[in-house]
Specification:
The chain is α+β, with helices and mostly antiparallel strands. It contains seven helices and four strands. The termini are far apart.
Length: about 160
């Protein structure tokens, strides 16, 4: 398994680790236990850092490479922590043609992070995605469940300021 490290150190609590141990114990020895345990672990921790993957591998008595293989294959799993405000900039065809690259650049400049990153205070995380499903509003950015469409780079800063 490659050494996947994030800018944010692992900060799991004893309570979170105990919840994970309970989930692992309830699935131990069952065929197909990896997926439900990983899903529960992500619910508990918010993402699946290497430390959590090791706990799962050891607890289920399976190779770490198997756990990492599942985590890295399915897009529902996050290797990096997410911010309180999760920003997604659509880079699908309609959005890209209408300037989504400039929107992404404006977000990166404002927050000082790139796609897959999280601000030092943990408030914002940034991802680029392929389609939000709001092509008629291109270019589009989502912050959690809020959709912002027909954006210009000049609008990005004031929108982000509303979340500070």
């Amino acid at each position: 398994m490659p050494n996947v490290k994030t800018a944010v150190p692992y900060r799991g609590t004893p309570e979170q680790e105990e919840k994970l141990r309970q989930v692992i114990d309830s699935h131990k020895g069952q065929p197909g236990a990896t997926m439900p345990v990983l899903q529960a672990a992500q619910e508990i921790f918010g993402y699946l850092p290497e430390e959590v993957q090791i706990m799962i591998a050891e607890g289920l008595d399976i190779p770490l490479s198997e756990v990492y293989g599942v985590v890295s294959f399915y897009t529902q799993f996050n290797l990096n922590p997410k911010g309180r405000y999760q920003i997604s900039v659509c880079l699908g065809t309609a959005c890209y043609v209408k300037g989504a690259g400039d929107i992404l650049e404006a977000v990166q400049q404002k927050l000082g992070i790139g796609p897959g990153g999280i601000t030092k205070d943990g408030k914002f995380s940034l991802d680029a995605c392929r389609c939000i499903g709001a092509c008629g509003l291109a270019p589009v950015m989502m912050i959690n469940e809020d959709v912002y469409g027909r954006l210009t780079p000049a609008q990005v800063g004031p929108i982000l300021d509303m979340y500070k």
